[in-house]
Amino acid sequence: MNLKQLAAALGLSISSVSKALRNSHEISAVTKERVLAKAAELNYEANPFASSLRKQKSKTIAVVIPEVANNFFALAINGIESIAQEKGYHVLIYLTHDDAKKEIAITKLLQNGRVDGIMMSLSGQTSDTKHLEELKEKKIPLVFFDRVAENIDAPKITTDDYNSGIKATQHLIDQGCKRIAFLSISHNLSISNKRMNGYTEALKQNGQPQSNNIVIPCNGNEEMNIKLIEKLLRRKNRPDGIFAAVEKLAIHSYDICNKLKLKIPRDVKIIGFSNLHTASLLNPSLTTITQPAYEIGREAASILFKLVEKRGFNFLLEKTVLKAELIVRDSTRIKR
Amino acid sequence: MNLKQLAAALGLSISSVSKALRNSHEISAVTKERVLAKAAELNYEANPFASSLRKQKSKTIAVVIPEVANNFFALAINGIESIAQEKGYHVLIYLTHDDAKKEIAITKLLQNGRVDGIMMSLSGQTSDTKHLEELKEKKIPLVFFDRVAENIDAPKITTDDYNSGIKATQHLIDQGCKRIAFLSISHNLSISNKRMNGYTEALKQNGQPQSNNIVIPCNGNEEMNIKLIEKLLRRKNRPDGIFAAVEKLAIHSYDICNKLKLKIPRDVKIIGFSNLHTASLLNPSLTTITQPAYEIGREAASILFKLVEKRGFNFLLEKTVLKAELIVRDSTRIKR
DNA sequence: TTTATTTACTACAACGTTTTCGTTAATTTT
DNA sequence: AAAATTAACGAAAACGTTGTAGTAAATAAA
């Protein structure tokens, strides 16, 4: 069922039917009625590829993220999808699994007009950003969220990672921690670095010497991370507080504490960035810095659509910073 | 950069270049080389809409699921995406949020050739399946996974829900439970019904009268579900075992036990279908029936691509049943 | 009444591919 | 050497839309 057949069934020209369907003023009201009725009757739906080809618009956006089995990204997708559905857009999803090569391959796929815009959260392995600059050169609207590329000129939606880093670290200090370790992810990621800077700053503010900083450079490799954390907790002067830059590292820390028979929070207090909805049910419940993931998704999508719909407007390059929340639970509670 | 420009740059006709790019035997080896080189140099990528329009193929599939902030679906997407990436397909994602109306609206969107195939897990509110029949009528390849529509003729990938239901219930019985409640979701969903049938069967096998069955009909509304579960646990002869058809209901049960100061597993033992990766870290750790979500996604995607690529082959209507695993943890452990 | 203007429609040329069908020239077969 | 085949390319017609540029008839303005 295409325009041609529909037009034939109506005894009208193809162009008239097309115009009637998009409610052009060139078509009389009665004819529009007839066309709409017939289209509904024959279950006509415009071919999206013909439309896209002709209009040079795909009504589709891409979401490129490291993974989906992660509450933060899942919630962000929820937010993105809600806006996309409102606006009548379609959402393509691509997973990098924190692999820079995949990220590059994916951006290649998106250079030929398949999508009207891209929302992206960088892979932890991404250091070279040539592929992102290519997207900018091709004028494809691009918005970063959470794991942003600082050196690329594009809107960025994040949380206040630096302040949250301070808040988390200060909280551990307030709970009596003397030796606090920071579990970082990829030094390529600004979120990791900002959270770390917050950590460093909080220690400094509390008069701790730089030499007290313990930064564990975790990365994409799970097994390696687990080993690093285990090694950390086996040190003779092991930390009494852990600040995990990311949910997974907090979970690993729990596992290893269990393995090593270390009691949380008695032996080690743990805080982590996390959107785990079972944080309160963990044993012990996990103190978290929780990001407004859903809102981040919605905000990022809104901005992307503004870019998409008002092309040429490049005034939307500002950063949007949303507030993350410290939720204190048992994993950092002082045992009475 | 399009074929025309590329052809001009090469001094060849459009059709020759097109053929060279798809490695046609009509083009000499030397010319092919030249074309490939130039295409790479000029960074040529075929316009996907023109190709799709011409070939009547979109190289895109749709994944329609209730939600993404759920480990089962997130892992399934991982599986789907991994196969799609191998095959060079793109993945559109649509969330129904367990709303039948949204599901219907989404299927409408997918009827016009936008996708070559659809993978679907039904919303819990879906009772009428007319919209699914329409997809079948339009000959759009369709594969169900997990939350399948029994009455629609399409490949279905599930886990052995009935047997898992028996296993879960038997486990509770073995752990000494005398009054076991089943928290169902939507009576429209065959997975819920099958799990319930397993529950019923296990009770029967253990000589319990039908009147001992306690089935709580939960549904999409969270607050309502929480109230139902709370009411259940406030009964004077409250159950000493809960079998949750779905992860979220198990989590709610934990919350309510906390609220009512009921000790798990002492007062109530809890088991649930779940892919929660923190199940072992909960307080107490949660006994689960865990589905091979990633494999389900991969299997469903593989079958879909077979349907897509060998159109007309309708022999692939069989059901695929994968095994779910009972993982015993503390929430059902007999206290010594 | 003649000339503008508006109304309601149609023809047709894109959009960028792919593919069928020609068309030469070169090669092979008789 | 003539005929038949093959190799390598090009012209042109789709695919299904949309928008521009007509074109009649009807209405309004002169």
Task: Summarize the helices and strands and which ones pair or pack.
2 copies of one chain form a homodimer.
Chain A: H1 3-10, H2 14-21, H3 29-41, H4 48-55, E1 60-65, H5 71-87, E2 90-95, H6 100-109, E3 117-120, H7 130-137, E4 142-145, E5 156-159, H8 161-174, E6 180-184, H9 190-205, E7 214-217, H10 222-234, E8 241-244, H11 247-259, E9 269-273, E10 287-290, H12 293-309, E11 319-322, E12 325-327
Parallel strand pairs in A: 1-2, 1-3, 3-4, 4-5, 5-11, 6-7, 6-8, 8-9, 9-10
Antiparallel strand pairs in A: 10-12
Chain A binds a DNA duplex (30 and 30 nucleotides) through helix 2 and helix 4.
Short description:
The structure is a homodimer of 336-residue chains. Chain A is built from 12 helices and 12 strands.
Overview of this protein structure:
2 copies of one chain form a homodimer. By secondary structure, the first copy, chain A, is an alpha/beta fold. Chain A is 43% helix and 16% strand. In chain A, helix 8 (161-174) packs across helix 9. The longest helix of chain A has 17 residues, at 71-87. Chain A is built from 12 helices and 12 strands. Chain A has a 6-stranded parallel sheet, with helices on both faces. Chain A has a 6-stranded mixed sheet with strand order 7-6-8-9-10-12, sandwiched between helices. The model of chain A has no long low-confidence stretch (mean pLDDT 95).
